[in-house]
Amino acid sequence: MKFTQLSIPGVWLIEPMRFGDARGYFMESFKLSEFQANVGNVVFLQDNESVSTRGVLRGLHFQKGEFSQAKLVRVSQGAVLDVAVDLRKDSPTFGRHVAVELSQDNGLQLFMPRGFAHGFVVLSDRAQFQYKVDNVYAPQSECTLRYDDPALGIDWRLPHDELMLSPKDLRGVGMAEIEPF
Question: Taken in order 160, 167, 48, 63, is the CA torsion positive or negative?
Answer without folding.
Answer: positive
